[in-house]
Amino acid sequence: MLKKLRNIQWNRVLYFTLFFIGVIVVVVIMTIVGKRDEQQVCKDIKIVIEGTEAFIDQADISKLIEQNYGSFAGKKVNGIPFQKVEKTLRKLPYVSDASIHADMNGTIRINISQREAVMRVINKNGKEFYVDPNGLKIPTTLKYIPHIMVATGNIAEGYNEALDTISTPLVKDLVKVVEFIKNDELWSNQVVQIYVNGDKDIELVPRIGTQQLIVGSADSLEQKFELLKTFYTQIMPKVGINAYGVVNVKYGGQIICEKRGNWSFSDDQTKKVANNTL
């Protein structure tokens, strides 16, 4: 008998005993937590809106939830349809993502990620909308007007007041040009607006000077803007700010400048400009 007892692997017996005790403890805890969750009610709501814009605020979110689901205050937490609320919030054109959860104290936390507008478009029919970095259209609102670049002119892209994606190559090019300008300190200070002319070429409206700055499309932007920099730093100081009415870099490899009709250069100015490669 003693010999048989010695052959028993007591370590294994101890391991399985502790394992079953652990399982029992977990089941008991889950049962207690489950009962607590069933009885837990919403005591408070915290709404956090992330992003640099201010299209929506906490009052807008609270109003939307009450209109669709009623007040959460005093409701049992396990009776609130979290997933449906998230889907409702994500349908807002100003919201890129939304999540909702409850903590152990009965506080419901709603996190909203807000879309960022990079450009405002006024199409040829006068319809306005914003565009975000991902190419999604956002409706305009009088509640908040972001300080961003405006694109006008011969733009056919339409908008039906829904969250929609860009459908024309032209507006996609406009976004690329705006992003390039935004990331360059010199041009973000110098360019105040974008215009699309009758040939659907993209033009820049400068803060200083009245020239038509034609870049055409979004191809070879670094090269084109380097040519424009050459115009401003080497050519314009020699002939004056309003000597040329059109500065065209759409072809990427050259600057084509058109003199204003009533403007004439002195012989000295002509020699100075001739020394630059146009």
How would you characterize this protein structure?
The structure is a single chain. It is built from eight helices and twelve strands. The chain is an alpha/beta fold. Strand 2 and strand 3 form a beta hairpin. Residues 31-36 and 263-278 have low confidence and may be disordered.
Question: Outline of this structure?
Answer:
This protein has 278 residues and is an alpha/beta fold. It has helices spanning 2-7, 10-39, 58-69, 82-90, 169-182, 185-190, 221-239, 267-274; strands spanning 44-50, 95-102, 107-114, 119-122, 128-131, 137-138, 149-153, 191-196, 202-206, 212-216, 244-248, 256-259. Residues 31-36 and 263-278 have low confidence and may be disordered.
Keywords:
single chain, 278 residues, alpha/beta, 9-stranded mixed beta sheet, disordered C terminus
In total, how many beta strands?
12
**Residue fraction in strands:** 15-25%
Which value, in Å, is the CA radius of gyration? Answer: 32 Å
H/I helix tally: 8
The separation of the N and C termini measures 108 Å
Q: Helicity level, as a percent range?
A: 25-40%
Q: Name the helix and strand elements from N-terminus to C-terminus, one letter apiece.
A: HHEHHEEEEEEHHEEEHEEH
Major β-sheet, in short?
A: 9 strands, mixed
Low-confidence stretches: 31-36, 263-278
Shape: elongated
What is the typical, i.e. mean, pLDDT?
Answer: 82
Question: Which helices and strands, and how do they pair?
Answer:
Elements: H1 2-7, H2 10-39, E1 44-50, H3 58-69, H4 82-90, E2 95-102, E3 107-114, E4 119-122, E5 128-131, E6 137-138, E7 149-153, H5 169-182, H6 185-190, E8 191-196, E9 202-206, E10 212-216, H7 221-239, E11 244-248, E12 256-259, H8 267-274
Parallel strand pairs: 1-3, 4-7, 7-8, 10-11
Antiparallel strand pairs: 2-3, 4-5, 5-6, 8-9, 9-10, 11-12
